[in-house]
Amino acid sequence: MIGYDLIGDIAIVKFDRNENEETKKQFAIEFLNKNKNIKTILEKTDKIKGRLRIYKTKFLYGEKKTYTIHKENGCLFKLDVNKTYFSPRLSNERKLIAQDIYNKVTSKKNKILVMFAGIAPFPIVIGKTLKLKNKKAEIISNEINRNACKYACENVKLNKLDNYIKIIQCDAKNLPEKIKEKFDFIMMARPNLRDTFLSTALKLSKKGTVIYYHGFGTKENVLDEINEDIKKSKRKISNIKIRKAGDIAPRLNRWNAVFQVR
Question: Which of 89, 41, 101 is nearest to 68 (CA)?
Fold first, then answer.
């Protein structure tokens, strides 16, 4: 079975382990011939892993490059697929969360934090949605990967959101030391890590803060880890809602849990 992701004009293909090089090359040639908007075929050679969530790829066919510009939700994103994490599969998730935040924002200048923001697709889609509706916001985009932050800065300018989004490069755990303010909304686009980082998010929350949390596994497992960390923090939450937000591997689902801090 062959799977692939399309990022800009690059196709990143995942082959079965037993596929030979000749079969891979033939697939790449045929794919490029059938998809004129694609210029480069890369093979995904390992799982996305590590703190920086970087693809490991091998060039197969077409233009030999890893840089591209991806378009989604009316936004443009510059990136190097070998230096930064980006998932086109989260396009609808970004749209849904941006719309939900828009529905909840007040007339004041709302403060929004996006943790694990990468090249800033969540902040930019949120910012663009609010700007188009004339809603004011101050959005902090946080990411540990320096290369991702470099592209995030370019993407903010590219999408004309300089007045909406500020980039902070650091480990998410260090955010409470760098930011003294509290947020109205916190989007946790977290990778599949053991640490939930909820204790960090709660330090940056106030009464009424809405948190969007990405968890992995079963629905029950995600709810359990949230409730366990909330109990440890001695905080309370209400109005928790959870829905499936895609998958990251066979039989491993991503869940989006939304709740309000009390």
Answer: 41
Q: What are the pLDDT digits (tens) for 146-189?
A: 999 999 999 999 999 999 999 999 999 999 999 989 999 999 99
Tell me: pLDDT of 46 over 80: no
pLDDT at position 49 is: 63
Q: Which CATH number fits domain 3-65: 3.40.50.300, 3.40.109.10, 3.40.50.1370, 3.30.300.110?
A: 3.30.300.110
* Cα torsion through 242, 138, 155, 87, rounded to 10: -10
Contact 165, 156 (CB under 8 A): yes
pLDDT at 51 exceeding the cut of 90: no
Q: Which of 159, 169, 140 is nearest to 52 (CA)?
A: 169
Q: How many other CB atoms are found less than 10 A from the CB of residue 6? A: 14
With tokens 């969360």, the residue in question is 97
**CATH C-level class of 86-261:** alpha beta
- If DSSP codes are grouped into helix, strand and coil, which group holds residue 140? strand
Q: How far apart are CA 8 and CA 124, in angstroms?
A: 17
Q: What is the pLDDT of residue 207?
A: 95
Dihedral sign computed on CA atoms, order 197, 198, 203, 204: positive
> How far apart are the C-alpha atoms of 29 and 34, rounded to whole Å?
9
In this predicted model, what pLDDT tens digit does every residue of 71-128 receive, in sequence order? 999 999 999 999 999 999 999 999 999 999 999 998 788 999 999 999 999 999 999 9
Distant-in-sequence, close-in-space partners of 204: CB < 8 Å, separation ≥ 6:
113, 175, 176, 179, 181, 182, 183, 186
Distance CA 148, CA 128 (A): 19
